[in-house]
Design a protein that fits this description.
Distance between the termini: 26 Å
Number of helices: 4
Low-confidence stretches: 68-75
Bound molecules: zinc ion
Largest sheet: none
Order of helices and strands: HHHH
Strand content: under 5%
Structural class: mainly alpha
Mean pLDDT: 80
Helix content: 40-55%
Length: about 80
């Protein structure tokens, strides 16, 4: 089950994590689209006006929905809280 405490104070993120987690395969599809590039940016979100470093918000949601922090470091998950 997704951990609702992974992003304290962010109900929207918690809701999105639950939603993705309830749909098998959705997190995989998201992570294929929002993959990490060699530059450290998200493959898709690098085209935003303000390119996001990977994991971007969308990738983080998918990773949290998987219930797996493998491959990412905790400080990346917490970077918005500082
Ligand atoms: Zn992205």
């Amino acid at each position: 089950m997704p951990n609702p405490n992974a992003e304290p104070g962010s109900d929207a993120i918690s809701y999105a994590v639950e939603f993705v987690g309830a749909h098998p395969g959705m997190s995989d599809r998201i992570l294929l689209e929002h993959a990490r590039e060699d530059s450290g940016h998200c493959r898709r979100c690098r085209y935003n006006l303000r390119p996001e470093r990977w994991p971007c918000t969308t990738a983080r949601i998918a990773l949290l929905a998987r219930g797996s922090s493998a491959g990412i470091r905790h400080e990346h998950l917490s970077e918005d809280e500082s």
